[in-house]
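Weekly modeling sync, notes
Attendees: AB, CL, MP (scribe)

Item 1: holo prediction request
CL wants a bound-state model with arginine before deciding which constructs to order. AB pointed out that an apo prediction alone won't tell us much about the pocket. Agreed to run with the ligand included and paste results into these notes for async review.

Input as submitted:
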Amino acid sequence: MINFKDEIADKIKKAISIEDDIKNLIENPPNKDMGDYAFPCFSLAKTLRKSPMIIANEIKDNIDLSGDLIEKVDVQGGYLNFFVNKKILINEVLKELDEKKENFGSSNIGNGKNIIVEYSSPNIAKPFHIGHLRTTVIGSALYNIYKFLGYNVTGINHLGDYGTQFGKMIEGYKRWGNEYDLNDNPIDKLMDIYVRINNLCKEDENVLEICRDNFKKLEEGDEYCTKIWNKFKDLSLKEFQRIYDLLGVKFDSFTGEAFYADKVDDVCKILEGKGIVQESEGAKIIDLEDKGLGVCMIRKANGSSIYATRDLATIRYRAKTYDFDKCLYVVAYEQNQYFKQIFEIAKYLDIPEKCVKGLKHISYGMTRLSTGKMSTREGTVVKVDELLNEAIDRVNKIIKEKNPDMENREEEAKKIGIGAVIFNNLCTTLVKDQIFDWDIMLNFNGETGPYIQYIYVRTKSVIEKAGRNVPEFSEIDINNLTDKASLNIIELLYNFSDVLVSVSEKNETCILTRYLLDLAKAYSNFYNENKIITDDEGITKARLYLSYVTGIVLKTGSKLLGIEMPDKM
Ligand code: ARG
């Protein structure tokens, strides 16, 4: 597809014979009446020692507009406003869509660069909570988008499967395991066992000692302890998998913290070799006060490793194994300071500079109910699988009322309910808290996942109702799509790949959710303004075709976010 920004930048450079980076200065004006692209001359004023207005006029006078790509250039203040040739634009977009179909928007911009996205990472034998839902959904969307842009992506679920608490859990299980049926709701039961043993440890120092010993045994690979620990892990993973299946989320690797336990000694040695480790009451610490980052402990007084050291070992391992250019950690804001510490210490790990630079914490805010903090009536944590099923049930009820004869209702309700939850997780700037409100997120006419699905279904039903097949691109006369409402859609379609690149640059999924809403609204507007089936066969075909391609992009964009499209709604 012709890149209009590139072309305009080229023309500007030639007009005033400069080699500056022009492309990145080109803007999209807020109002289309002002042009499709605008070039502010202010930054050139310094180098050229002329007023922006004079520069703008000079460019206008000298610019070569042959080739028809640009219809008109206007000077307004210190700006040059460019109006592109709409027919070329339409043709470019439709031709590209015809060639690439659901791959429209994909590119090789990633050039095979290695990217790790770490997401979800729940703790075994503990509930999968609402915060884990958010990282799962955000991480999975970023994973899909990077892949679509030609990066070599690895998705890792860094399970929290290690820590001294497992010494306690093993002891509890040994004592009371047979009282529980762990095939049903295992995580609740394991939590129960944990609470019991923890209380006992508080009362009886001897029990605590046994628990510590269990953990030591686990570290040394003791057969019994390892077996029990594996059981906890299997049971938990099975529970988590139910959620991943509902969400349609996948991982390339489930290597969790335990995998790195035997790799922390090397890390400690390296860091000590750099002379940055200090002793403090028997523990080993790194003082980062001068960077305003407090103190980070890397080994406890009793010699066991901790979360931070395992993370440092993970970084080394990933640098070696994946030679990553970027390693994204999708983890809640509570760990902001923690990741700053880890990334600071990573500078001393003897890994390539590019890996150190590529470490990035994708922080996200809390999930809140519109009425306050998120918890159930009993004050316990919200269970994510129950929540997802509630979404499906609610949609099922809505459809039953609106469209009682709908085929495959259960299946479609699943796509819509899950889609609504996913969209709601992705549509606010990540650092902001996410508001959880059923009425808002399930509103078929709101700024929601279901709204986008609804418009998508309309792009399809329009064609079905006309009783026709989708026309061929070769049958379309571009002149029938130059009205404002159609052009608005075409311009959005043209921007799709830029939007995806923007998501990858900023790691902000809301750029794509916003885009999809804009596209859906543009279609809705087109549908209201234009009769699609008319007496004019050429116009009818063009409008049906535009419906069809809009549907493709709504579907592709949603799929990248992890949202499936229903056939009916
Ligand atoms: N398991 C942790 C939790 O549930 C998140 C792990 C984040 N990733 C990491 N590499 N530290 O809070």
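Recorded for review: The chain has three domains: 4-84, 114-266+307-369, 384-561.
Action items: CL to compare against the apo run; MP to circulate these notes.
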